Amino acid sequence: MQYTGSCHCGQVQFEVEAPAEMVCVDCNCSICARSGYLHLILPLANFKLLSGANCLTTYTFGSGIAQHTFCSNCGIKAFYTPRSNPDGIDVNVRCLNPQPEQLTIEPFDGQHWEDHAATLTHLSAAKNSTPGY
Hints:
Layout: E1 2-6, E2 13-17, E3 21-27, H1 30-35, E4 38-43, E5 47-51, E6 56-59, E7 68-71, E8 79-80, E9 88-92, E10 96-97, E11 102-108, H2 113-116
Parallel strand pairs: 3-11
Antiparallel strand pairs: 1-2, 1-10, 2-5, 3-4, 4-9, 6-7, 8-9
């Protein structure tokens, strides 16, 4: 299914291909818990930035591998390059339109990221037949 997505002000817009019934991850790490991000990790081939590249600002911390991109106008992080899947993309399900027909939210213990990161690495693989968690 094709979804469109955007930041709050609409300057950053994108498309993703993902299932109508999806499973996403609710991470409890410091940045995700504070921002309310619901993760849908996909192969990069399933993502297309339509507009707003010039509005994106990047924030990194810790290892510097994750590239937390957000709109410099409204501050919304609609997608980013995750540390667990630097070859893929992680889309905030809350920024998608329409919302998935069925959404299953699974908890992820990001406070102990090193112990659990391996459970996410397969999600950006192009052969992954069911994008998402």
